Amino acid sequence: MSNVAEGGTAPLTVAADLTLTVGGTEAPLRSTGERLFLEFPSLVSAVRALRGLPPSERRRLHTVLTAADLAVEIRARDRTLVALGAGTRSGPLARWIGADPAEIRPCGAVAAARAGVAATIDRFR
Description:
One of its GO terms (molecular function) is ATP binding. With 125 residues, the chain is of the alpha+beta class. Helices cover 37% and strands 26% of the residues. It has four helices and six strands. It has helices spanning 43-51, 55-67, 92-97, 106-123, and strands at residues 18-22, 25-31, 35-40, 71-76, 79-85, 103-104. Strands 1-2-3-4-5-6 form a six-stranded mixed sheet. A hairpin with a 3-residue loop joins strand 2 and strand 3 (35-40). It is globular and about 50 Å long.
């Protein structure tokens, strides 16, 4: 194991499932050890929570997660929208919309929106 003070990582595992309140919305947080999944009930609530995280805090969170060899996926309707931390890679889309260092998953956002529309339609059937 490398020394964090020397710029190395301190690999951690997380063995807990929690419920967080982010932006007034409850979001379950579950873990697979090195990966954390923060699940929002809708695409709108996930976007609100992400917008409420200032860029400096997003960079700080990414740095801490990377140093701990952890990653977090922000999800809605079982689809990953954004990932931060170890093993994630920011791309041109994240830089363009000002979400760097987050890894944006546009297909996840489209699929979550589609699932939300389908759920709404099903309620009216």
